[in-house]
Amino acid sequence: MNTPAVRLTDLRRVHRGVTALDGVRLDFARGSFTAVMGPSGSGKSTLLNCAAGIDRPTSGRVEIDGVPLDGLGERRLALLRRERVGFVFQAYNLIPSLTAAQNVALPLRLAGRRPSRAAVLDALERVGLRERAGHRPAQLSGGQQQRVALARALITRPAVLFGDEPTGALDTVTSREVLTLLRGLVDTAAQTVVMVTHDPVAASFADRVVFLVDGRVAGEMAAPAADAVAARLAGLEAVPC
Ligand SMILES: Nc1ncnc2c1ncn2[C@@H]1O[C@H](COP(=O)(O)OP(=O)(O)OP(=O)(O)O)[C@@H](O)[C@H]1O
Question: Over its length of 241 residues, how does the chain's per-residue pLDDT go in tens digits?
C-alpha cells in the first residue's frame, strides 16, 4: 500500500558523452505534488522523460506503481506509458482539426479502446471544460487548451501526471488557474503530480520541491514558499564559470 507512484533508484542517463543524470534516487508518493527545479541543463527534462518511460536510462531503475520499467519490452513499455502515465508539456500539442472531446479521447483510441462519451465528458468536467467539448483548439484560450491537454492526460486515470513546464506559455492569471487545478486534482482525487518548472510561484503550489544540479539531487524543500524557493534557486544558479 506504501508503494510510491514512482520510484527512481540510482538513475543515470548519459547522452552522447554528456551525463544528464548522475545517480538520482527519488520517491514520489501517491497523491503528492512535486516540483522539480534547477539551473538550465541540470537534467530536469531528462529526469521526467526517464521517469515517464519516454527515455531509457543508461543505468538505474524506474518503477511506476511498483512495476520496474527496465524489464519491459518496447510494446509493454508503450502500453504502460499510455495507460499509467499522463504527460503535459509547455506546448499543448492538441490536434487542431479535432474537437476538445476528440482530442481527449485520442489516447484511448490509440490504445485500441473506444472511450464512452461519458468518460470523455467526465475528464473534461474534471478540468472545468465540459461545456467546451465541441470546440476546436483555435476556439479556446491558451489556458483552456492546456486544460484540454490535462483532460487528455487524465482520461486513462494515470498513476502519475508529469508536466514539463506546463504553465511556461501561460500568463500569470491563467497559469494560476492551471496550477490551482493541478493542486485540486492532488487534494481531491489523490492524483500524483510531478512538474518541472522555472517559476518559484508555480513551485509553491507543490508539496515539495526537488532541486537538481548537474544531474544530481542538490536538496529538497517541503511546503515551499515562493520567496524561499527563489532564494534557494538563486544560490544554486550562482555557480562560478
Ligand atoms: N538528446 C540529447 N543529446 C545530447 N545531450 C543531451 C540530450 N538531451 C539532453 N542533453 C544534455 O543533458 C543535459 C541535461 O539536459 P536537460 O534538458 O535534461 O536539462 P534541463 O534541466 O531540463 O534544462 P532546461 O532547463 O534548459 O530545459 C544538458 O547538458 C543537455 O545538453
Answer: 589 999 999 999 999 999 999 999 999 999 999 999 999 999 999 999 999 999 999 999 999 999 999 989 999 999 899 889 999 999 999 999 999 999 999 988 887 888 899 999 999 999 999 999 999 999 999 999 999 999 999 998 999 999 999 999 999 999 999 999 999 999 999 999 999 999 999 999 999 999 999 999 999 999 999 999 999 999 988 755 5
Ligand 1 pocket check: which of 13, 19, 44 to mutate, most ligand atoms within 8 Å of Cβ? 44
Helix (H) or strand (E) run with residue 59 in it: strand 59-64
Which residue of 24, 46, 217 sits with most ligand 1 atoms within 8 Å of its CB, as the best mutation to test the pocket?
Answer: 46
Terminal-to-terminal C-alpha distance of the chain: 46
Compute, in angstroms, the gap from residue 93 CA to the centroid of ligand 1: 21
Q: Domain 6-237 belongs to what architecture? A: 3-Layer(aba) Sandwich (3.40)
